[in-house]
Amino acid sequence: QLSDSTMPSAKSEIVLKFSELPQAKLLPDKKVEVELTDQNGIAFTAILNAKSWRKAEANAAGFEMWAGAISGKLGKGSQGLEIVDAGIQIFEKKPKPSPEESVGEET
Hints:
Elements: E1 13-18, E2 24-27, E3 31-37, E4 43-49, H1 50-62, E5 66-77, E6 80-92, H2 99-106
Parallel strand pairs: 4-6
Antiparallel strand pairs: 1-5, 2-3, 3-4, 5-6
């Protein structure tokens, strides 16, 4: 077993993917807090810039199909895990062509 002094250090980064915008709680200093729960029931809290959150909301509203991601460093919060220095992105999802449509394109 390694002692703390001989344990190698590492960077921890996490990406939480979602397809529904979480509820945001306004905080002071132009920040918002969002909470997500992963497939294992682990709660994550992320504090985002309000401007980034508004842009993500606008992108999600503007895309017919989308997926989102919040990423940052993993930290310990008071109510679970925390995403430190969090950022958010919304990606447009393109609909996949049905098999009938792709067959017609080959001819």
